[in-house]
Design goal:
It contains 13 helices and 20 strands. By secondary structure, the protein is an alpha/beta fold. The chain folds into 2 domains: about 120 residues, Urease, subunit C, domain 1 (Roll), CATH 2.30.40; about 290 residues, Alpha-Beta Barrel (TIM Barrel), CATH 3.20.20.140. The chain has an 8-stranded mixed β-sheet. Strands 11-10-12-13-14-15-16 form a 7-stranded parallel β-sheet, with helices on both faces. A 3-stranded parallel β-sheet has the order 5-8-9. The termini are far apart.
Length: about 450
């Protein structure tokens, strides 16, 4: 009798496990479905999504006006909203927030005083905030201590915490000193914020180290010191990263550094200060991404001269007019009272509006271009059958007014509802996420 009872209990437990692991379907009633690649919208569409909690994978099964909704599907009514793929920030640093002191931005204090575990927790918090604002993909380009970025990416992929899909760089590689100005007594302060790499052997070792510890893109300080990398050295970055199927993002500060990076064929040039019309022409010809991190001029932001602001807007417009591949990017790694990091990120729309770039084109940069620079356009981002279900919605039409993105009402990440009716529902995300996952490097 005991054996029978034990068998029945085991059977019931197994049935419960199997039921909990069954694929879950959601049917999204999209009042207006935006195709940001073309700048068009189709009315009254249904998106059928399947999420498998056993492996954490989501798939868009069908899209159309006559999709049959299964009886067991959860219906999500967005019939009065504008539905689209998630947004992309192509340059941020989730594991750092400058501590604001009177007239001082203490980047150095942060990297010295904050441990990697603390920065990993901060990264999770930052990613959470950005996801709540509709950013489902982030290129996280360094300044994360000793690989806090890899830890967060793995945790997100395993469903332990909600967050954007991360394309992380590991430790920034640079010539001796990185972006620091050290003293001889403490020249090791640069690590782990930067990997010193001056010879060819050191460059190869630094790239391989980052990839081994989970980097998905390589970040190099092209010209952060008085001894910038040569074209041949930068070509070595490109070829060694390509050997592992990865691209190289280049932090550029000087015109000559930017020119060398273009000649070497880097994937992207990050920061806009050194770029001009001639360099834009070279970038357009070679298909190199412009990741400008175009900080806006506003009363609540860091001080900026009128001259610098006018040049920033003019050069962004010039890059657009010349057909340079543009990515929305922020470098918003600082604290602004009254803003979380997601809200601060969306403020960078100010610069794009000031450059008089059409709203539909700005949305394309935020989405379609973002998927491409992240190299995810064949699996995630666009709302297509067979793709992962990363979906956001707004109350107004961003094709007509891009500021509609300031109020993202709905966020689905990887098939799971993260935000609905403007309210984050993170507990539901945790309850329905996978209980385990394969730890990917």
């Amino acid at each position: 009798m005991k054996r029978i009872v034990t068998f029945i209990m085991a059977f019931v437990f197994l049935a419960m496990l199997l039921q909990s692991a069954q694929a879950q379907k959601s049917a999204i009633l999209a009042g207006h479905l935006i195709d940001s690649s073309t700048g068009t919208a189709t009315a009254n569409q249904i998106i059928l999504v399947e999420h498998n909690p056993a492996n954490g994978r989501s798939t868009i099964l069908e899209i159309g006006s006559n999709v049959t909704i299964p009886d067991d599907a959860t219906v999500i009514d967005l019939s009065d909203q504008w539905v689209m793929g998630g947004l992309v920030d192509a340059h941020d640093h989730l594991g750092i927030t400058y501590k604001e002191e009177p007239e001082n931005w203490n980047y150095y204090y942060t990297v010295i005083q904050d441990s990697t575990p603390l920065r990993a927790i901060q990264s999770m918090s930052t990613g959470f905030q950005k996801l709540a604002s509709g950013f489902t993909i982030v290129r996280d380009l360094g300044n994360n201590g000793l690989y806090a970025d890899t830890a967060l990416r793995q945790a997100i992929e395993m469903g332990w915490v909600p967050g954007p899909t991360m394309i992380n760089s590991g430790i920034i590689i640079g010539a001796f000193g990185g972006q620091f100005y050290e003293t001889p007594e403490r020249e090791d302060t640069v690590y782990p914020e930067y990997l010193n790499a001056d010879t060819n052997d050191e460059i190869v070792k630094a790239i391989r180290r980052n990839i081994h510890y989970g980097a998905k893109v390589i970040k190099v300080c092209v010209d952060c010191q008085a001894y910038p990398y040569t074209i041949d050295q930068l070509k070595l970055f490109v070829s060694e990263a390509a050997n592992a199927g990865q691209k190289v993002s280049g932090h550029v500060q000087t015109r000559e550094g930017a020119r060398r990076a273009i000649e070497a064929g880097l994937w992207s040039l990050d920061h806009d200060g050194a770029l001009d019309e001639e360099l834009h022409s070279m970038m357009a010809e070679r298909g190199i991404w412009r990741v400008g991190t175009e900080t806006p001029k506003a009363d609540f932001m860091r001080p900026m001269s009128d001259e610098r602001w006018e040049r920033r807007v003019r050069m962004l417009r010039d890059a657009y007019d010349q057909g340079v591949k543009l990515a929305f990017s922020t470098d918003a790694d600082y604290f602004i009272p009254g803003f979380n990091r997601g809200e601060l990120t969306i403020e960078f729309l100010r610069t794009w509006k000031a450059a008089d770039i059409p709203d539909a084109e700005i949305l394309k940069v935020l989405t379609t271009n973002g998927y491409e620079i992240s190299e995810l356009e064949d699996e995630r981002g666009p709302l297509k059958v067979g793709f992962a279900a990363d979906i956001i919605a707004t109350a107004e039409n961003p094709l007509d007014d891009i500021n509609a993105l300031r109020d993202v009402r709905f966020v689905m990440k990887n098939g799971m509802v993260f935000k609905k009716d403007g309210v984050v529902s993170s507990l539901d995300f945790f309850h329905n996420g996978p209980a385990y996952g394969w730890r990917k490097r």
